[in-house]
Specification:
Length: 265
């Protein structure tokens, strides 16, 4: 049996997916990224390969593709492909009906339109600002002294929204701390944060060609409050993927590896 790997080295998390010849996911791993991208990818690949009986080491993969922030640092990779292409392919093999993506990564936000074969039709990316990214949500959760999981649910009980006016992560965190200090309802402050991020996704969604529905990828796709806010602001249905949305980049890379590996035979 041949196996094919995809390693998505992100700024916050590193993900690895291994597929068999049929395209079935036989292993996946998500770890916190280290400062050194090569160490991050090496550890994720090792852990993923250990889960596959008879595979052994990453060197035994038939084909391996690196993607993400540290895609050039994946050891033994046969090639690397941009995370934009890999997220598109990952979503395509998970749910071919989905044609538009908002990918919220640790450091940026992307809008991606998917063509009928899983390739990228068009895409847009935000400027180099942490506002609305995974780092932004981590800062907001810290301001509330909550875990990311608990923070993502906080806004769901809000009856009103307290707007967050600051666009910069640092200033927004300061604004939130001030509002908490004034004993404003925390769920309504959280709702304001989610709404602010959803509005930043509006342009990305339009550039991705979204008309009636969209899906979210990246770790922030698990944020229930953000999903609700995006549906309200964008007036689009957010389709939930059956496979972990944080794995889409690695899954797409592994699928490209499978296609290329089988073509070599």
């Amino acid at each position: 049996m041949n196996y094919f790997g995809g390693c998505d080295v992100g700024s916050t998390y590193t993900k690895c997916v291994i597929l068999d010849e049929s395209g079935k996911m036989v292993s996946n791993v998500t770890i916190r990224s280290k400062i050194n991208s090569e160490k991050s990818s090496s550890e994720a690949l090792r852990l993923a390969c250990e889960k596959v009986v008879g595979l052994g080491t990453p060197d035994n993969l038939t084909y391996l593709i690196g993607t993400g922030y540290g895609r050039n640092k994946v050891p033994s990779a046969d090639e690397n492909i941009s995370e934009i292409s890999c997220h598109a392919m990952g979503v395509h093999v998970t749910d071919p009906k989905v044609k538009a993506i908002i990918d919220i990564g640790g450091q940026d936000v992307k809008g991606i339109a998917i063509d009928t074969d899983g390739t990228v039709k068009s895409f847009a990316m935000n400027d180099k600002c942490a506002a609305g990214t995974g780092r932004f949500f981590e800062a907001m959760a810290n301001a509330f002294e909550l875990s990311l999981e608990d923070f993502s649910k906080l806004s769901l009980t809000a009856k009103n929204v307290i707007p967050i006016t600051a666009q910069c992560t640092v200033f927004a965190e300061s604004e939130v701390i001030t509002l908490v200090g004034e004993s404003k309802p925390t769920d309504e402050i959280a709702a304001g944060i989610q709404m602010a991020v959803a509005k930043r996704c509006f342009v990305m969604a339009k550039k991705a060609g979204a008309t009636d529905s969209i899906t979210l990828t990246g770790g922030c796709a698990k944020n229930a409050g953000l999903k609700k806010a995006i549906e309200q602001v964008l007036k689009l249905k957010v389709i939930e993927l059956k496979t972990d949305p944080q794995l889409m980049g690695a899954l797409g890379a592994a699928e490209y590896a499978r296609q290329k590996g089988l073509d070599k035979e």
